[in-house]
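Researcher: I'm comparing several assemblies side by side, and this is the next one on my list. It has 729 residues spread over two chains. Same procedure as the others: predict the full complex and return the structure.
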Amino acid sequence: MESTTRQFTSNARTALGDENLQGALRRLSTGFPKKRLEAAARLPEFEQLRDQARDIKNHVLENLDFYLEVFEERVLESGGQVHWCDDADAARRTILDICRDAGAKTVTKSKSMIGEEIAINDFLEENGVEPVETDLGEYIIQLRREPPSHIIAPAIHLSKGQVEATFREKHDDLPADRILEEPRSLLEEARGKLRQKFIAADVGLTGANMLIAETGTNVLVTNEGNADLTYSLPRVHIVIASLEKIVPTLEDATTILRVLARSATGQEMSVYTTFCTGPRRPDDLDGPEEYHVVLLDNGRTELLGSEFQEMLRCIRCGACLNHCPIYRSVGGHAYGWVYSGPMGAVLIPGLIGLGEAHHLPNASTLCGRCESVCPMRIPLPKMLRSWRQRQFERRQTSMPSRLALKTWAWFARRPGLYRPLTRMAAGTLSILGRRRRRFGLMLLAGGWTQVRDLPAPQGNSFVAAWNKRQN
Amino acid sequence: MTNEPVRVGLFATCLVDLMRPSVGFAAAHLLQKAGCEVSVPPVQTCCGQPAYNSGDAVDAAAIAKQVITAFEPFDYVVVPSGSCGGMIKLHYPELFNDDDAWRPRAEALGARTHELLSFLVDVRGVTDFAASFEGTVTYHDSCSGLRELGIKDQPRELISKINGLTLAESSDTESCCGFGGLFCVKYPDISGKMVDAKADDIVASGADTVLCGDLGCLMNIAGRLKRRGDKVEARHLAEVLAGMADGPAIAEAGDGRG
């Protein structure tokens, strides 16, 4: 997808003025965090599970080549195929080739962030294959031709009324006077539309919440069961997943499942959890005839061994988004690319470049709430700071900020100059602000006074005054 | 508490030093009452966090070396801020990951560095300063204090011993106020949205004063409350504990409360 990440500031301003979006974000901000907290409280070993989950993925990342090869072997043994793809383009072509070999006209899809990352829908459409999203949220945004605004709740930015309007516009074969006010009726209508697509599809494309090395299995987690119809009805099942989705064993997968849904939605488990291994075996009642796993790198191996390696532990639960005050203020679209929130702010510069995504690591107060809820204990604030450090080292920090910072630091490193000068400045400001004790407008502090008054200094220096008193 | 004098180096922070010296005097007073001998090394400027959080690790390390050298002689370093305290305690050692000479010194100083309120309660075991304050207050947990240093109960314990005061907790004391150092001037629209939510929450608590242990958050919150015309006042908890809350509150004209 085309990135608008460079325009983060104006994207954010638009988002702040969007009443519908602000209402949706208010609901998300109160709903998800509360449910997560309650779910965690019901499980005494939740914190220990987070440690275990972190350790599992750390071990995988240290031995990624080994587990990927084991995974490939097991997939081959079960009759499936593995396709290694370095970048988005290779993954798109591989998927299109499989679709063409299958003579596919329609591809049903269950929600996949990797699918978004490689913009597979647009590519298939351009090549005459119709992709149909089957997750309700994804289906809605596909109709609206919008990217997801949240990694697990893609249409969270929309109100019920907006969804109704979209359905009326796009489902123009249905009676115009039908009643669509209740969420239930919207769901029924989407279901009716999707049912036909499920049956007609030649290929089912799913993501993977995890890939299990010891069995060559992919794990799918949904609340709607759409992934199950997506992979089991068509003749061909394609799994698209990035390299770091690997876990060693079934046991490890269950450990991660125990923190995943609780962190994401506050559920103990998602409604449907499916383990798919290979194509249909001779005595299976159903299942696809072909099973393909498309393994995507797309910049991940660059992160391995770097200060961003820990980001590859991410299981895409969305807890960091739900708790992030920036995400909660501007929503997902402002970030301008597939991912958003703290995990997006760390991952996007790694995937599309720091120059393009230069705002994202900076648009954070480093408040640490993301890290405090991350089930994989990813030190997100630390990594945002690491990106800032890279920007500074590569002189990608804007010239005025760099100059201001350098000047300030020059003085801060020279107490003999800093002390009298700052004391003088504080004294002057105090006199200027003596009546109101605050300033509504201040030269060089426009960012501050745009939204708040600047308190006036009391007018002395504590360090100077204290030491004067002592002598 | 033993009778040995405990030598504390007070790191005032640049904001307290230049914007609100009364917080520094209050902190020193509380430390003395808790049996400490207080010194304020005059070579201190800033903890270096603005540089560190902007990616300028070189200047941050240079400033850190200055602080380490100045404060090494003391038994403890005490900081009336969770943010600057966290910088010295947790981030100084990170700055010297590849420096065998300075890393041990940064770690040693970090181990002896404490945020003021948690130092009084956890290290000195003092919670009652016989303070009085008439009014209803609410407490804002600063992000660094809360999540980096685990400061949550200590200020509330101190508040519970203040005579005449009622604590009215707001609905989300743990959400960021939108200060974030340079963030608030780089992204004023988003920061404004965040501090507005914080101000709404504070006003809804019914408190007439918001207390906090970090002057950065307080200046941001007070600045927004005043811009909106809200009557709630903002103060550092140290001022209230030390009985030094008779001067004007932050960004407040006039001569004090009432």
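Model: For your comparison table: Chain A touches chain B through 68 residues (CB under 8 Å).
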